[in-house]
Design a protein that fits this description.
The chain is mainly alpha-helical. The chain has six helices and no strands. Helix content is 72%, strand content 0%. Helix 2 packs antiparallel against helix 3 and helix 2 runs antiparallel to helix 5. The termini are far apart. It has one domain.
């Protein structure tokens, strides 16, 4: 009786890393763009940013971001996250989601809308810098500071 080779799920999924990573980058870009456009629309006094269609698109994109992020986390080796850059990035992602959805969920003054959108976009940029550098210092590492 022949024994069958044992393949781990991680080894099989790592073959799809380039495609999964591309979807993750695309979804992150769309999430930031969608939040910026909806936030600016809300600041300008428009009602469409809170429509069912806008919410559905936003939730679909953000759900894709989180799903693909979980896939990447499960297939990449743990040593990649040894310097804790992922935890710093996740803190900024939580701030991004919280500020963005607080902006869209509740009636705010114009000044508070601007501050919430600026907070969301700053957290988005910081999370991107940390992810790009794979280092907790993010943009500082990229810029060589």
């Amino acid at each position: 009786m022949r024994s069958r080779p044992v393949f781990s799920q991680r080894a099989i999924m790592i073959e799809f890393y380039p495609q999964i990573h591309s979807v993750h980058i695309w979804a992150i870009t769309m999430s930031g763009l969608c939040m910026a456009i909806r936030g600016l629309g809300l600041i300008c006094g428009m009602h469409w940013p809170c429509s069912v269609l806008a919410w559905s698109i936003g939730l679909a994109i953000d759900g894709t971001v989180l799903t693909v992020a979980a896939m990447l986390f499960s297939i990449l080796p743990a040593a990649l996250f040894a310097n804790h850059w992922l935890w710093v990035k996740l803190i900024f992602v939580v701030i991004y989601f919280a500020a963005g959805y607080w902006l869209l969920l509740s009636e705010q003054t114009r000044m508070r809308q601007v501050l919430l959108l600026a907070t969301a976009m700053a957290a988005y940029a910081l999370a991107y810098g940390v992810a790009r550098a794979h280092d907790p210092s993010g943009w500082l590492t990229i810029w060589g500071i």
